[in-house]
Amino acid sequence: MTRIALIRHGSTAWNKEGKMQGSTDIPLDPEGLEQARKLAIRLSDEHWDLVYSSHLSRARQTGEIIAAGLGITDVRQDKRLMEVSGGQTEGTTEADRIARWGAGWRQLELGMETEQSVLGRGMGFLDELLQEHAGKHILLVSHGSFIRHLLRKLAPTLTQDSNLKNTSVTRFTVTDDRWECELYNCTAHLTEA
């Protein structure tokens, strides 16, 4: 059995401003740094072998803070874990997008990455990960939209009725290519005293 936890990075200034981040490299804000520290404390009661992260700084910083808290010295970065590219929409708010392209902006070709592309790189990464690290407990620090795409593929019956929260944990056990979701969008570490 392999255990994999998908973690969304900590908060950024653009999260608070409601701006589309996509592949733009935005660092964690002070709250995001604190969220990552709290998650590291929470995860220190569990056994984890490896940390992988997106190369974008908000995920990389989150992964490095978690790894340091767990005594893991090797944080591996992989570009396939990066956020879904938003094309021309990056750096804009919903109001900006509606003003610029109208309410139907999602149906326009604005250079946004396709679901097929996201799943191709994401599932390719996971297949390699499971072959190389079978039986390990692995933390993957990535991005909200990227993780949501994977969840639709890995757990099609899972109800995703809210956005993934910053530093949320969604955990799976994987046995014989069967993915079982044990925990979804959990941020208990942010509310515990």
From TrEMBL:
Cellular component annotations (GO), alphabetically ordered: cytoplasm
Binding-site positions, substrate: 8-15, 58
Residue ranges crossing the lipid bilayer per the database entry: none
Any matching Pfam family: His_Phos_1
Protein name per the record: Putative phosphoglycerate mutase
Molecular function, one GO term: phosphatase activity
Coiled coil: none
Organism name: Chitinophaga ginsengisoli
Active site: 9, 83
SUPFAM superfamilies: Phosphoglycerate mutase-like (SSF53254)
Cross-referenced InterPro entries: His_Pase_superF_clade-1, His_PPase_superfam, PGM_Phosphatase
Gene3D superfamilies reported for this sequence: Phosphoglycerate mutase-like
